[in-house]
Amino acid sequence: MRAFLIVLDSVGIGEAPDAGEYGDEGANTLAHCAEAAGGLNLPVMQAMGLGNIPALLPRGPPIRGVPAADNPTASFGAMQEVSKGKDTTTGHWEMAGLALEKGFHLFPKGPPSFPDDLIASFEQETGRRLIGNKAASGTAIIAELGAEHMRTGALIAYTSADSVFQVAAHEEVVPLPALYAACETARRLCDKYPVGRVIARPFVGAPGAFTRTNNRRDFSYPPPEPTILDRLSAAGVPVVTVGKLDDVFAHRGMTESVHAETSSAAAQATLDAAARLERGFVFTNLIDFDMLYGHRRDAAGYANALAEADAFLGRLLKLLRADDLLLVTADHGNDPTFKGTDHTREFVPLLAYRPSVNAGRPATFSGRGQTQTGARIDPARARRSRATSEADLGIRHGFYDVAQTLAAFFGIASLSRGKTLFPRSGYR
Questions:
Q1: With a cut of 50, which residues of the chain have pLDDT below it?
Q2: Strands 348-353 and 325-329, how do they pair?
Q3: CB-based contacts of 214-219 (< 8 A; 24+ apart in sequence)
Q4: What are the pLDDT digits (tens) for 88-136?
């Protein structure tokens, strides 16, 4: 038996109830991408029930081009994050069974953003001066300060609305081992705050034409307690992480990791794992939505990435066995049509596919609750239908329902947080 957890990094599905606390009222990554693109074409996720999810939400505008399915091929729902924050580490840790009541430390926008003692210690230990010291877009700050960095060798340090200390350097000025070593120093110095991630951001090129490379590395604060990865690996279940998850979980709890800095590489590694593994848990992050399109406010690129992910899921479904489990969700939002360049506090979609239960179920569509263009036609009817649907997982309070579901699926002890999506007998 195998379980696959696919995280569509930043694919939110509408503002969370506490979005106002984060300045994110009105954000809706999926719906706004769909409108900007003139409609999405996601036949696999549509059949699984992606278009059924908006009707569950308190403010759930339809996803243009993705109507509700009368008979979805998977179970569907949405999850509301309970931890403080809206960043990668917080989202992934919560779906792995943790909850951060206080959240990670956020640096002010600045300048300056970083405390004087942190800067002084970093410069002394690394022997390199820091420039930047403010909140900024990664591409914008290397365009602004890249030339100075190349002249002086000073490292570019910046933050964002997330709990991050980011260090950018040109690969020909600061070799990758030296940049990673500097980030390890920053990781240790940032632990006392605590900061969620220290991120190495290497780039290449000449002034006016700098580009970031795929040699990014994340140095995460270690999880404060065992995650579902730790628990499964301790129980003898092989745990394979794909994407940047080795960094997100500080290389803990995994028996194998495939570090991939693009969604296409992560998707292929996941398909390879599905073709060779007889048993185990495969945990995959598809990063392009967030890294390439959300932060850069590229709605068209985001829509294309969704179509590519949908095609990948179609290939993955063909490799699943009768006793497998597939979960598809996200870690936060990043609405490319929204203000600023930061993550957005949103509900995330949840799709759960069990071949032993769902295989052979054809999806049918009548446009219930919405038309193909996204206009709502009968919300009351949609609510009545959903109340009797076995596929409806509702709104889950806490991403950690994912971890509890994995514990039930593999037959290990229950976790202290969360509720399983199905009874323990419901995975066969």
A1: 367-388
A2: antiparallel
A3: 214/261, 214/262, 215/171, 215/176, 215/261, 216/244, 216/261, 217/180, 217/183, 217/247, 218/244, 218/247, 218/248, 219/183, 219/184, 219/186, 219/187, 219/247
A4: 999 999 999 999 988 899 999 999 999 999 999 999 999 999 999 999 9
Class at the top of the CATH hierarchy for domain 2-101+222-427: alpha beta
Q: What are the residue ranges spanned by the domains of the chain?
A: 2-101+222-427, 116-220
Rg, Å, the chain Cα set: 21
Q: Which of 67, 277, 89, 57 is nearest to 187 (CA)?
A: 89
DSSP H/E element including 169: strand 164-170
pLDDT tens digits for range 140-177: 999 999 999 999 999 999 999 889 999 999 999 999 99
Query: HSE-up of 146 (CA within 13 Å, CB side)?
Result: 22
- What is the C-alpha to C-alpha distance for residues 95 and 405, in angstroms, rounded to an integer? 10
Q: Round to whole Å and give the CA distance between 78 and 394.
A: 6
In whole angstroms, give the CA distance from residue 228 to residue 194: 22
Domain 116-220 classification at class level: alpha beta
Residue 59 has a pLDDT of 85
3-state secondary structure of 266: helix
Q: Is the peptide bond before 194 cis (omega within 30 degrees of 0)?
A: yes
CA distance 138 to 166: 9
**Where does residue 21 rank: exposed (0-12), middle (13-18), buried (19+ CB within 10 A)?**
exposed
The residue type at 341:
T
pLDDT at 389: 52
